[in-house]
Amino acid sequence: MASKLLDENIIKQVKELFTDLDHPVKVLFFGSNKENCEYCEETKGLLSEIVAIDDRFSMETYDIETDSDIAKQYNITKAPTTVIAAVKDDEIINYGVQYAGIPAGHEFTSLVNSMLMVSKQDSGLAPSIREALAKIESPVNLKVFVTPTCPYCPRAVIVAHQMAIESPFVVGEMVEAMEFQELSNQFHVSGVPHTVINDGGGDVVGAVPEDHLMEEIQKVLAITV
């Protein structure tokens, strides 16, 4: 039997945070039995332990090859990938809140925070950012490259997830840079956090305020305020 990843102290802290949950949350885990998925089992184990903390969480596990139709539905191409979705009236609401790779180390913080945001079904963004996002009418993909030891990375991930929750056109995806080295090389990631907008249409290095990221998205989409 695999040893637990979360100790009792962490579980207690997370349980206290989860007292603020509003709506149920569905965790969808996509692994792979064919690919050399080094962190698939560890990621699935971590998610299982978190889901077990509160009965308002539930989890579904898929394989990106054998469950390719479901993976395609959620635009999943990498394993492991985790989708944090809301549940309303027994329907799954996919906000585009994703984690590619294990959300370990400092990213555990962003995972817990994003679960809370999805449960509230509210981005918590400033009114001006909400207004700017409401003008978006074309897809925006935010890949936030991180490492587990980066203390500034969770903030960048949370902002991307806030924007994904706010806009149906935005997908916010944490990407663990070391697990997906080829992708990191493709986008010339040399430091983290590094947010890539629309697969290289633009990028932001560092954990920047939400208005700064919004400005860069507007430049990529050529939207004027």
Explain briefly what this protein structure is:
This protein is an alpha/beta fold and 225 residues long. It has helices spanning 8-17, 40-51, 68-73, 107-120, 127-134, 153-166, 181-186, 210-221; strands at 25-31, 57-63, 81-88, 91-93, 97-100, 140-146, 170-176, 194-197, 202-205.
Care to describe what's here?
The protein is α/β, with parallel strands linked by helices. It has two domains: 9-120, Glutaredoxin; 127-221, 3-Layer(aba) Sandwich (Glutaredoxin), CATH 3.40.30.10. The chain contains eight helices and nine strands. The protein has helices spanning 8-17, 40-51, 68-73, 107-120, 127-134, 153-166, 181-186, 210-221, and strands at residues 25-31, 57-63, 81-88, 91-93, 97-100, 140-146, 170-176, 194-197, 202-205. Strands 1, 2, 3, 4, 5, 6, 7, 8 and 9 form a nine-stranded mixed sheet that branches. α6 (153-166) links the parallel β6 and β7. α4 runs parallel beside α6 (153-166). The longest helix is centred in the middle third of the chain and has 14 residues, at 107-120. The model has no long low-confidence stretch (mean pLDDT 94).
